[in-house]
Amino acid sequence: MRNFQDFVTAAEQTDPRTPQVVLPAGSGPDVAMDALVVVFGDRDDRSTVRLVVGEVELGAVHRDTVLDLVWTTTKSGLGEGDNLWLPGASTSARYVELACPVPGCPSSHKFVFTYDEDDPPTCSVHPGTPFQRVT
Ligand SMILES: [Zn+2]
């Protein structure tokens, strides 16, 4: 059983434009770790994300921390996270990347595992502007 403190650090020093990994309310640390493995495993240039569960931002998560935990617990590498998915996990291995459609907008991208296309999150910089899919 993991704790969020195993891999989440305070976000004060994190650039507010750092992408957010957004999980459904009530997601536990094991679900979060699985999601982080997928997000970091997908692109080598992702070094830090901010973890959000429900409406609450828990803090920053660094790639190296996730990498170390995965290696010490499963001996498998990033990008091989598919075997980490447990039956009944509340997220799937698929996520979508959302971003504000306004060119140059400084708001952070969001990686979401559940998402209502009819009611997407809106931009904090451009109120009322719905985020759109990047991927
Ligand atoms: Zn915006």
Total number of helices: 2
Query: C-alpha Rg, in Å?
Result: 15 Å
**Span from first to last CA?**
32 Å
Query: How many E strands?
Result: 6
SSE ordering: EHEEHEEE
Summed over residues and divided by their number, the pLDDT gives a mean of: 84
Strand order of the largest sheet: 3-2-1-5-4-6
| Biggest sheet record | 6 strands, mixed
**Hetero compounds:** zinc ion
User: What helical percentage do the residues reach?
Assistant: 10-25%
| Strand percentage | 15-25%
Structure description:
The protein has 135 residues and is α/β, with parallel strands linked by helices. It has a domain at 17-82. It is 19% helix and 19% strand. The protein has two helices and six strands. It has a six-stranded mixed beta sheet with strand order 3-2-1-5-4-6. Helix 1 (29-42) packs across helix 2. Residues 100, 102, 105, 107, 123, 125-126, 129 line the site of zinc ion.
SSE layout and pairing:
Layout: E1 20-23, H1 29-42, E2 48-53, E3 56-62, H2 63-74, E4 96-99, E5 110-112, E6 132-133
Parallel strand pairs: 1-2, 1-5
Antiparallel strand pairs: 2-3, 4-5, 4-6
Bound molecules: zinc ion (ZN).
Residues 100, 102, 105, 107, 123, 125-126, 129 line the site of zinc ion (ZN).
Question: How do you describe this structure in short?
Answer:
The chain is α/β, with parallel strands linked by helices.
Name the descriptors.
alpha/beta, six-stranded mixed β-sheet, 2 helices, 135 residues, single chain, binds zinc ion
